[in-house]
Design goal:
This protein is an alpha/beta fold and 251 residues long. It has a seven-stranded parallel β-sheet with strand order 3-2-1-4-5-6-7, with helices on both faces. Helix 1 runs parallel beside helix 2. It contains seven helices and seven strands. 41% of the residues lie in helices and 15% in strands. The two termini are 33 Å apart.
């Protein structure tokens, strides 16, 4: 019960890793506020948490929209009275040739994966700073630690997220706020289906990062455990870190 008497704002909570994180944090005592653009999925997550004996509420929120995020955070604080943990899981992306990526897709990928983290941090920060031990955990990717062919937009946003997290960690280190991120490899979620290499991709360019066969990827629950570790007091000496969770892929 590492999160008893703490509240957690979790984005991307309608499915996949976001839902797994919400379930785990609630199971360990946190009051969870689950948000996503998928309202039906949020309801399913909240109901699952309550059925398991946890506490949760939720709402629809597009993290790329600052006003939506601000309203969501304020509603959480009004409901729970506090915000101790900010867990940024929401993300979008796909594998595509650079020539296929138009400005709209680039802006959407940037808006959710990077600007969305700026928005949630901006809205949550005043509340986080009220509590010693409050912290932020962002879900990056090993795609933010290396280049990958046919993933230029996604790689750019995840690399930006990593240095954004490091900068926050340094700037607020003396004010009791930690910021870290995990960098997973392929996870068994709906998002991974958008990165399956196509027949028209050059095999020699994608062989080193091709997703494993189904059933060989990590489960969302595996990554949720890593998020919970960084958010807990067990990791109180860890700040500005990138926890690589890839089973040795980058090694």
């Amino acid at each position: 019960m590492r999160f008893t008497d703490r509240t957690a704002y979790i984005t991307g909570a309608a499915s996949g890793l976001g839902r797994a994180a919400a379930m785990l944090f609630a199971a360990e005592g946190a009051k969870v506020f689950a948000v996503d653009v998928n309202g039906d999925g949020v309801v399913e997550t909240v109901n699952a948490i309550r059925a398991a004996g946890g506490q949760a509420i939720g709402g629809v929120c597009d993290v790329s929209d600052l006003e939506s995020v601000q309203a969501s955070v304020e509603y959480m604080v009004e409901s729970f009275g506090s915000l101790h943990l900010l867990i940024n899981v929401a993300g979008v992306g796909r594998a595509a040739r650079f020539e296929e990526i138009d400005e709209r897709e680039w802006a959407r990928t940037l808006g959710v994966n990077l600007t969305g983290v700026f928005h949630t941090t901006k809205a949550a920060l005043p509340h986080l700073l009220q509590h010693r031990g409050a912290n932020i955990v962002n879900v990056a990717s090993i795609a933010g630690l290396r280049g990958q062919a046919y993933c230029s937009a996604y790689c750019a946003t995840k690399a930006g997220m990593i240095n954004f997290t490091r900068s926050l960690a340094l700037e607020f280190a003396t004010r009791g706020l930690r910021a870290n991120c995990i960098a997973p490899a392929g996870i068994q979620t709906d998002l991974i289906s958008h990165f399956i290499p196509r027949e028209d991709f050059e095999p020699q360019l994608i062989a080193y990062f091709s997703p494993p066969k189904p059933g060989k990827m990590w489960k969302p629950e595996d990554m949720a455990n890593s998020i919970a570790y960084l958010a807990s007091d067990d990791a109180r000496m860890i700040n500005g870190a990138v926890l690589v969770c890839d089973g040795g892929t980058l090694a």
